[in-house]
Amino acid sequence: MPVELRKGSLHLTGTPLWFDAKRKSELSFVSHAHSDHIARHESVVATKATLTLMEHRLGRVKSALPVSYRHPFELGALNVELLPAGHVLGSAQIRITRSDGHRIVYTGDLNCEPSLTAEAHEVAECDTLVIESTFGHPRFKFPPKAQVWEQIESWVRRTLAAGVQPVIYGYALGKSQEIARFLHSQGFGICAHEKIHAMCALYSSLGVDVPTRLFDGAFRDNEVGLFPPFGRSQALKAIRPKATAVCTGWAIDADIARRYGADVAFALSDHADCDALIAYAKATGASEVLTHHGYARELAHALREAGVFARAVSQPLQLTLPL
C-alpha cells in the first residue's frame, strides 16, 4: 500500500485516510490541534482533547471519532491505534496495521522529554515509520529541560526584583500552558493574553489545571505576563518598564530574540531535537523510515549515518511499502 505526498499532505493510497491534511479531506487523522495540522475535514480521527481544542479554533467537526490511547479499532481493512506523542495535550501518533501484519506509524509532532501538561510519549513499534522532522537538522541540540526552566525562573526573579515587568512570548497552545504551569508552581501569578487564557481554561476543563488571570491592561505584584509571539495586545505596549523573553526551540539560532522582538530567548521546545528523533526512530524497530516536514532530507541523511534506512518522503513522491 503506497504512501503518497499529495497537496502537501500524506495520504494512504487506496483508502480515504489522510495524515494531518492541510486542506479539507474526506477523512483525516489529526495528530494535535496546532493550526498547521488542522482543517475543516468531513470526518476526523483524533483524541478527545485534540477534538476539543480543534473545535475551539475551527468550530464543530462534522463527523468526529474520538479515540482513546491504546484502544485499537477497525477502519475498513485496517487496524488502527493511537499512542501519545508528548507534544501538547492530546497529541497522538497513529499506528496502522495492514491485513498482512505490516505496521505503519505516523508520528505528527513528537516530544520525547517529560512535559508538565502533555501525556508522556510512547514508542510506537512498527515496520515503516513516517516521522516529522521539524528540528531534524543536526545543529538542533536542545539543552536539558531542567536547565532551561532554571534559566527562565532566574530571569523572571531578576526582572521582578529590578522593578521591571516580565513578559514571556509563547505559542497559545501547548507552550504557554507548560510555561504557566511551571511558573505557577514556583509561586508566580500568571496574567495571560485572551487567546492563551482561553486555551488554559480548556486545558483545565480537560483535567490539566493551568490557572491564569485574563490580562486587563495592568499587572499585579509578582505576576508574569504570558502572550503569543504575534498578534499581541495593544495595551501591552503601554506597560513600562518591561522586559520580554521568547520561549522556542528556534532559540538555538543566535538571532532569534531579535526576530521575535524580544530581549532574550530561551530554548524551550515541545519538539524532539535531531538526536532524540534518531533515537526514537531506532527504538521503534522500523526497517524503513520516511522523514517529512522541516529538515526532512537532513534527518534522513543523519539516520542513514546512524545505520537506519531512511529517505525523505518527498523523494520520490510515492513509495510502495514492502510486502
Assign a percent range to the helix content: 10-25%
Pattern of helices and strands: EEEEEHEEEEEEHEHEHEEEHEHEHEE
Overall strand count: 20
What overall form do the CA principal axes indicate? globular
Looking at the overall shape, the CATH architecture of the largest domain is 4-Layer Sandwich
Which residues sit in consecutive blocks of at least 5 with pLDDT less than 50?
A: 317-323
Question: What is the total domain count?
Answer: 2
Biggest sheet, spatial arrangement of strands = 6-5-4-3-2-1-20
Task: Write the CATH fold name of the largest domain.
Answer: Metallo-beta-lactamase, Chain A
Strand percent estimate: 25-35%
Distance N to C terminus: 8 Å
- Number of DSSP helices? 7
Going by CATH, what is the homologous superfamily of the largest domain? Ribonuclease Z/Hydroxyacylglutathione hydrolase-like
Gyration radius from CA atoms, angstroms: 20 Å
Helix-strand category:
alpha/beta
Mean pLDDT: 94
For the record, the CATH class of the largest domain is Alpha Beta
Main sheet summary? 7 strands, mixed
Key terms:
7-stranded mixed sheet, 323 residues, Rossmann fold, 2 domains, disordered C terminus, Metallo-beta-lactamase, Chain A
